[in-house]
Amino acid sequence: MGLETRPQMIIAHRGGVVDAERSENSFKALREAILRGYTHVEIDARITADGHVICFHNDDLMEEADIEGKISEMPRDEVTEIVLTRSGEKIPTFEDYCAHCAGHIDVMIDLKGCKDRYIDQYADEIETALTKHCLIQNALILINKVPKNNQDKIAERFLGKIKCSWRQYLKKTQEAARQDSDFAGKYYVFNHGLDFSAQEVKGFRELGLDVIVSINTGHYTLGDPQERGDEHIQQMLEFGVNGFQIDSCYDHAFFDK
Q1: How far apart are CA 67 and CA 242, in angstroms?
Q2: Of the N and C termini of the chain, which has fewer Cβ atoms inside 10 Å?
């Protein structure tokens, strides 16, 4: 794909290029995403038992560290000594991960959420790191389609500073945009490839909204995930979306290797 037809944003899912030797949210995965030319990396911002933010997708440690335990039940200093099985690196803090991104790649922050008492600390720690490393201007905030763990309350802290994900259908989006003249300055549209039609993408774009499509292997429970994801990418390109958040197995559609 030529540069002139490449979408504005190609976002590396789960902290970079993840494979047999590069763990999720690891510096090795991040470095490879930078080398391949991704515009953004998705950072999973998870909170520790003492209210600090680290980079890790699941609360449970078994899949990525092969040990029993949960991030939410451990203090930061203990979490950051845990070694990731595939990459051999330790779990990074959010601030350290941002330091490695600075000057190289922009970020999408997947807010994993927190309990009520930590909302201020969680949001402040994220914003402070983004500001310190000059990442806030082009950052994106991401929450679940159905918010949990106070994700919606936390995202509200960033409105007007960082664009936040909007995951409603076109009609509701049009209604919201009529009530807020700066709607497109606060939000971007984010959903799975299965959720978009050509008409909807056109409607979102007419409202001035960026449309980012998630293409991840976990979305496809029927058929070949590689084939189905590749097909969705081509379809979404034809619809005229602005960007993609992808597992690295799909990046051949955007980068020459």
Answers
A1: 39
A2: C
